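Entry 14. Ran structure prediction on the chain below.
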Amino acid sequence: MAATIAILDYGLANLRSVQKAFVHVGHDAEIVSDPKAASQASHVVLPGVGAVGDALRNLRDTGLAEVVVNHVAADRPMLGICLGLQMLFEVCHEGGEHHGLGLLRGEVRRFDVDRTQGLAVPHMGWNRLAVRNPSPVTPPEFEGQAVYFVHAYHAVCTDASDVATTTDYGGDFVSSVCRGNLVATQFHPEKSQSVGLAMLDRFARM
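Output, structure tokens:
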């Protein structure tokens, strides 16, 4: 049975590029703002760019936060991308302290490598994956593959078993997570060329 993929539109994401990437690998994906329609999808994608406080507010105000929570509780395939990963955690420290969705234990912190090592923040560009706990989206054969990042904040997981991959940027940080059918990437698979497209294809087949 073909997946029905809902890309959640809560006003803060580059939705078309994600949609086009799914279509490119042969999967229909709809941009959805209605919670009822989103709740009927087999697969849900939570992308995001911008400030986490605004994103969480919009997600809750639209009723889509409840869709995400219920989808994960039912252990149905869920993909977070960039800010969509960060919102899954308990606390996000960006412009204050924001309570996330609490679906994963841990917090989101700003990189300090600009102060400690003179590296640029935001972290932008291509970096390689180290597979720690293989996930449906990041299997062992993706070890060493380069993917595309744009972010100033990164997740710190309480549970090491949730860490799917790490990436070195002045030290290892969590670049993707997985728990059951919940997967999320700090990088942008839709901008990561063939390897990113392969990840989206693998997600659609979960």
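The chain has seven helices and 14 strands. Will compare against last week's run tomorrow.
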